[in-house]
Each structure stands twice: as structure tokens, then as C-alpha cells.
From TrEMBL:
Annotated site residues (Important for catalysis) in this chain: D153
Keywords: NAD, Nucleotide-binding, Oxidoreductase
Domain (Glutamate/phenylalanine/leucine/valine/L-tryptophan dehydrogenase C-terminal) ranges: 190-423
Coiled coil segments of this chain: none
GO molecular function, one term: nucleotide binding
The organism's place on the tree of life at top rank: Bacteria
Residues reported to bind NAD(+): T197, N229
GO process terms (BP): L-glutamate catabolic process
Similarity comment: Belongs to the Glu/Leu/Phe/Val dehydrogenases family.
Enzyme active site: K113
Annotated protein name in UniProt: Glutamate dehydrogenase
Length: 426
């Protein structure tokens, strides 16, 4: 029988990268051919046109997407990204990685992702609200607390989630806080959600420094590319809770470097009011490319995917690469890292899982109408991350896999087993 030809609908560098990772992992665990394509490709995708009225009265049309990779273990879960270069293939890759991540950390979710191709910085607050509500309105037939639960991602925030929740609730006829996570606290958001991903990154970095590299966190230097929610929260947690010295930070406009250490709270305050790190007087300017090759103990790419290329991988001078972004290391670059015994890698589906874990906690709290304090949330988060870390290290030791392959095989195997257990609907 001839093999079914899969549509090129999702073709993009990111989706090709996710597929190559899947194929490598599937080969490593001898995943049966009968289940491979079902576990690899998304279950469904939605593309929508989003016309909104601009403040000047003109009409602008934007493209929006939602990809649901798997619903075999529960509702799909994933963020909503507003970015001008967003495409369907990128969204599909992010949904695939989210499925592996949720399975790896033991959540009853499949992976999803969505977003709008837009530069949100060019919209007024009222235009942004119109776009956010229109996007949610178009998705209503395909989502729900038991079907697909969106969350914030790059370019979106708690306020946008609040607008989306209100849109869905008005359509249903009553308040449905569990339709999205990452909401404002006043609308049923969870304590600890805003810092969850960055705090999780910091927790895992400290674990690997102490337990695997035998380096005291207070003696470590840290460089972070990306100073959005994840990068800034990771910087704060590493400096405040672990005593690490943050020597470099960057955003889309460039970076700053001070080998004696950067005052992170002061840099965060400057960035909040200036919307850039450029001009910060507590450090010297540095480019994003220069930051990646700085000598440091920990390098944290916390911005966008595919920044660690083969060229960059060969020039890294860190001891620990902690992938706070999704897919920051290309497939070819990862092959180079596997040959270097001087760098340990915390792969993305483990490193940045804190956000979806606390989103799950928020969903649970909404459905039970029971709310936890911040200390409880973070304690539960760190326990779940530690459990996933130990599973990855056990898989790595058992099969002599790289840490990335160990994490991916665990996630992929669990997704595939769920699909096999449910069978194929006739």
C-alpha cells in the first residue's frame, strides 16, 4: 500500500524542525509506523479573517490561526501569540512542542497554539481590544474549557486574556473563567502565573548548577537574550533567590553588558518605562549576537525560536544552555551541541514548562472555585518540575540519550500511547 502524502499546509522552518525532532525520537524508541503520522501531525487547524475598525474609521484585515495538535488526553492547551511574522507553520510547530511538553510534565492536556499576524505595538488599546475580541469570537465553535484553553504568549498579556474570556462568556450567557488562563487575578487568574515560566527556568537552572555541574548558583554568571515576561522573571528569580550574577540582558533593540553584574530590578524598571534597554546607564551596550557568545556560566535564550544556529553553537562559551524560548536551537545546531562535552542543555520542553503547569493550576482552581496563595502555587510548580527533571534524567541514563532526546521521547511516547489506547474511530 502506498504511503499517504501529507499536505504541505504547515510547511515552515519551524515545522520542519519539529518533524525532524519527532522522526529522530520515534526512531530512537522504535515507535510503530502505524501510529507515527497520527502522533506527529496536528489534529486540526483553524485560519480566520479578522476585520476590525481602526480608530480613524478605516477597516483593517488581519489573519488569525489556531492549531490543535492533540486532544487524546484532554483539552488542548497553548498560548496566543501576536507577532507580525507569525505564520500557520510556526503555530503548528509550537502546538506540537506543547503536546510533548504537557505529556512530559504529566498534565492532562494536548498541545495547541494560536495567534494573529500583527504588530500589536502599532495598535491603540481600543484597536487591540477589538482585535482580541474578534479573534476569540471566531474561535468559539472550536474551543471550550473541555476542548481547547488559550493562554497568553508573545505579544499578549493578562488584559487580552480578560477580553477574550469576557467575549466567550457573553456568547455563552454566563461567566466562564476556565476558558482561558493567564487572566487578571480579579477575573479568576492564579497567583504566581505571571512569573511561573521565568521562576521555573530559574528553579531548573539552580538544580542543574548544584546537582549536575557542582557549581554554587551564587558563583554563576548569567546572560539572558530576551527581556519580556519570561526573561525578566528569570533574571529576577536568579538574582534574588539564587544569588546568581546577571551580566547581560537584551531585548529586540539590543542588549547591555556589565561583567560586575547588572542591577536587575533597576533594569526592569527602566525597561518598563522606556520600552527598551538601550540607554541603560548601569551597563555597556552589546548586540544580541554578541550576547550569545559571551563567556558565562548560564546562557538563557528567552526570545524567539531558531537563534542558536550551527555557527552560534560552535561559538558558545557557556556551561549551561537553558532554553527558556520555544525551539531556540536549530536541529543542525543541536547536533553540534551533542559533540561538545563542555555544555549541558536544559531542553525547551522541560525548561519553560512552568507557564503551562501553572496555567493548569489556574484551570483547576477555576473549575473548583477554589483559589491558592502564591506560595502554594510555586511549591506545587517546583514539585512538578522536579518530577519531570528526574524522569528526563532517568530516561537519559537508561538509553544513553542526550537530554533533549530523553525529554522528547518521553513526551512523544506518552502522546502516542494515549492515541493507541483510544484506538482509531471508524
Amino acid at each position: 500500500m502506498s504511503k499517504v502524502i501529507i499536505s504541505s499546509l504547515y510547511d515552515s522552518p519551524e515545522f520542519r524542525m519539529a518533524c525532524r525532532q519527532f522522526d529522530q525520537a520515534a526512531d530512537a524508541i522504535n515507535l510503530p509506523e502505524a501510529i507515527r503520522d497520527r502522533a506527529k501531525y496536528p489534529r486540526r487547524c483553524i485560519a480566520v479573517s479578522l476585520p476590525i475598525q481602526r480608530d480613524d474609521g478605516s477597516i483593517a484585515l488581519y489573519e488569525g490561526y489556531r492549531v490543535q495538535h492533540s486532544l487524546s488526553t484532554g483539552p488542548s492547551k497553548g498560548g496566543v501569540r501576536f507577532h507580525p511574522e507569525l505564520c500557520l507553520g510556526e503555530v503548528a510547530a509550537l502546538a506540537v512542542w506543547m503536546s510533548w511538553k504537557c505529556a512530559l510534565v504529566g498534565l492532562p492536556y494536548g498541545g495547541a497554539k494560536g495567534g494573529v499576524s500583527v504588530n500589536a505595538a502599532q495598535l491603540s488599546p481600543t484597536e487591540l481590544e477589538r482585535l482580541s475580541r474578534r479573534y476569540m469570537q471566531e474561535l468559539i465553535p472550536f474551543i471550550g474549557p473541555d476542548v481547547d484553553v488559550p493562554a497568553p504568549d508573545m505579544g499578549t498579556n493578562a488584559q487580552i486574556m480578560g477580553w477574550m474570556m469576557d467575549t466567550y462568556s457573553n456568547h455563552i450567557g454566563h461567566l466562564v473563567p476556565s476558558i482561558v488562563t493567564g487572566k487578571p487575578l480579579s477575573l479568576g487568574g492564579s497567583q504566581g502565573r505571571s512569573e511561573a515560566t521565568g521562576a521555573g527556568v530559574a528553579h531548573l537552572v539552580c538544580r542543574y548548577l548544584k546537582d549536575f555541574l557542582k557549581i554554587a548558583p551564587a558563583e554563576a554568571t548569567v546572560a539572558i537574550q530576551g527581556f519580556g515576561n519570561v526573561g525578566s522573571e528569570a533574571a529576577l528569580a536568579l538574582s534574588r533567590n539564587c544569588g546568581a550574577k546577571v551580566i547581560a540582558l537584551s531585548d529586540e533593540h539590543g542588549g547591555i553588558y556589565n561583567p560586575r553584574g547588572i542591577d536587575v530590578p533597576r533594569a526592569l524598571s527602566y525597561h518598563r518605562y522606556q520600552a527598551t534597554l538601550r540607554g541603560f546607564d548601569g551597563a555597556e551596550p552589546i548586540s544580541n549576537d554578541e550576547l550569545l557568545s559571551l563567556p558565562c556560566t548560564v546562557l538563557i535564550p528567552a526570545a524567539v525560536q531558531r537563534v542558536i544556529t550551527p555557527t552560534v553553537a560552535a561559538t558558545l562559551r557557556c556551561r549551561l544552555l537553558a532554553e527558556a524560548a520555544n525551539g531556540p536551537t536549530t536541529y543542525s545546531a543541536d547536533k553540534i551541541l551533542e559533540t561538545r562535552d563542555d555544555i549541558e542543555v536544559i531542553p525547551d520542553i522541560l525548561c519553560n514548562a512552568g507557564g503551562v503547569i501553572v496555567s493548569y493550576f489556574e484551570w483547576l482552581q477555576n473549575r473548583a472555585c477554589e483559589y491558592w496563595d502564591r506560595d502554594t502555587v510555586l511549591a506545587k510548580l517546583f514539585t512538578q518540575l522536579d518530577r519531570a527533571l528526574e524522569a528526563v534524567e532517568a530516561q537519559r541514563a537508561k538509553y544513553q540519550f542526550s537530554r533533549r532526546l530523553a525529554a522528547q521521547t518521553l513526551g512523544i511516547e506518552r502522546v502516542a500511547h494515549a492515541k493507541q489506547a483510544r484506538g482509531l474511530f471508524p
